[in-house]
Amino acid sequence: MAYDVVIIGGGPAGLAAGIYVKRAMLNALLIEKIGIGGQILITDLVENYPGFLETSGADLSRKFEQHALKFGLEIKSIVEVTGIEDRGEMKVVKTSEGDLDTKAVIIAAGTTPRKLGAKGELNFIGRGVSYCATCDGFFFREKVVVVVGGGDSAITEAIFLTKMAKKVIIVHRRDKLRAEKINQEHAFANPKISFAWDSVVEEIAGKQVVEKVMVRNVKTNELSEIKTDGVFIYVGLIPNTGFADVEKDEGGFIIANGKMETSVRGIFVAGDCRVTPLRQIATAVGDGAIAAVSAEKYLEGI
Ligand code: NAP
Q1: By alpha-carbon position, which residue is closest to atom 38 of ligand 1?
Q2: Which of 39, 262, 272, 285 is the most buried (most CB within 10 A)?
């Protein structure tokens, strides 16, 4: 049996698309590589999604899922997409569990945290190096941690880490943060947070676990050592789009028009994995709704 729409990805964009396609009475399946939620699952505090003054990513994603299930969306987890074959009016979504026939596809596969590329980084993953403060912050109670990056992820997660750690040092390669102004203000006002400006981490070192990072000041070229128990890395996102043969930018983000149509008819995109000026839960949800309605209109025309 062929689906009308297969949605790839169970984050806010995919679940919003799921709600809209089910309300359009389409035969739809959402497939998710790991578990429902996506990147927001590793977000402790969400305070910019309208209607929710303060919530957690996990709680919000549970609500999105319940909402999609209420309208009868079929969801399959732990299914990885390996490719999409375009056969004109039919597409074949290739997965770890076999092939799925569908008339339309919505790619909402999100992103994965980028690795820093510093010496020692990969050796210490799980032994002091982490990409998820919500998952691992608990292990750093009363410890010193370094956070690398100057975007919203680095700053909000640094603030979160101050709940456990005794000291958080943000290492940023410039002297200005990229994060939202309100997040910056909160970080500057937090007495547990200090900054190493204009600095890059060259090496993460220790014996069994992380003990220090070697940091180079890019203006003076001076190399210095920061003693630390953990390093949390937030240096941007890599789109999960390798399986999709559609037009992308040089970073692998999918290019779409305002209707979320990609370069291939019948394949739509939504959320963080597309080229977009803003990656927020609110924008992902908006993209998902548009992609779903565009898919519905496309299906009416074929
Ligand atoms: P991001 O905005 O791309 O920021 C990445 C940061 O890492 C930048 O400060 C960048 O420095 C730095 N960086 C990149 N490569 C580096 C390298 N090789 N060495 C050292 N530093 C490096 O990524 P993000 O913070 O993960 O955020 C992704 C998106 O999600 C953004 O659109 C963000 O607004 C959104 N987000 C929003 C919230 C929120 O609103 N509360 C929370 C989390 C994420 P430069 O600044 O010099 O480029």
Answers
A1: 152
A2: 272
